[in-house]
Design goal:
The protein is α/β, with parallel strands linked by helices. Helix content is about 30%, strand content about 20%. The strands form 2 sheets. The chain has a 5-stranded parallel beta sheet with strand order 3-2-4-1-5, with helices on both faces. Strands 6-7-10-8-9 form a 5-stranded mixed beta sheet, with helices on both faces. The structure holds S-adenosylmethionine.
């Protein structure tokens, strides 16, 4: 990258409430001329972009297609072409931002973009602006302390599968499971086996229209969860 090239800001826009964004993120979003958002190759919808739209100052918006597939070859090709497009814009000397839900380095497409950019151009200038994670916002909403004293805390993906999940839950005091929606039956059965259904809270669409909190997982048996759903397990109970 030439010394005159622009900087890419990876911006966490928080989990939904447009007020849960940092002052730093806001400042950059109002300054950069170019904003990238990831979306499915089938449409141009980006939740991250819709969260910050009310803060923008006329920056150009470009959608980068990130396919929802587990096919490594397809994914790698998409990351590579998206990273090349970002480098093309930075090479003009313009700064750009990539907006992402919650925190950019927590289960986010930004992590893949960052690694691909650094591989393609080790000199690329990147600044990451952290965001409030979905589970911080959900803990605040439900008044659930995530960790206290010497307790441990695990953050896991619901896609892990029942056996692995059981292993992790056995080892930890507090567990947050993100990406629950496709694997909810599996997660439900695991928590039922461990007798933890009533120590588990499910939060959907935190800070967004349709927000719901269910304090006992039994109430969700057999139901489909929205994509934006997570589970907080507190093995010792809430204590109140
Ligand atoms: C790809 S991960 C993004 C995580 C995000 N980077 C963060 O810092 O929280 C998507 C998952 O995050 C969780 N999530 C994100 N926003 C949420 C919200 N507003 N309400 C509930 N869950 C949310 C859901 O579990 C969803 O499946």
């Amino acid at each position: 990258m030439t010394p005159t090239a622009g900087t890419l800001y990876g911006i966490g826009v928080g989990p939904g409430d447009p007020e849960l964004i940092t002052l730093k993120a806001l400042k950059v979003l109002r300054q950069v001329p170019h904003i990238f958002a990831s979306s499915s190759p089938k449409n141009t919808y980006s939740l991250a972009l819709s969260i910050v739209r009310c803060h923008l100052n006329g920056a150009g918006i470009e959608h980068l297609p990130f396919p929802m597939t587990k096919d490594e070859a397809v994914l790698k090709a998409a990351w590579e072409s998206n990273a090349r497009r970002v480098l093309e814009v930075l090479a003009t000397g313009a700064d750009a931002a990539f907006v992402t839900l919650g925190d950019p380095l927590t289960y986010s497409t930004f992590g893949y973009l960052l690694k691909t950019l650094k591989r393609l151009d080790p000199e690329v200038s990147i600044v990451t602006i952290p965001g409030i994670t979905s589970y911080s916002a959900a803990a605040a909403l439900t008044h659930i302390p995530l960790t206290e004293g010497e307790e441990s805390f695990y953050l896991v993906s619901g896609a892990l599968g029942a056996a692995k999940l059981k292993e992790i839950i056995d080892k930890s005091d507090n567990i947050v499971i993100l990406k629950t929606y496709r694997y909810f039956d599996d997660i439900y059965r695991t928590l039922e086996d461990l007798d933890l259904l009533d120590r588990t809270t499910c939060i959907s669409r935190c800070g967004l229209d349709g927000e719901t909190v269910v304090e006992n997982l039994r109430d969700l048996k057999g139901r489909d969860l929205p994509y934006l759903s997570m589970i907080i397990i507190k093995k010792q109970g809430r204590g109140y």
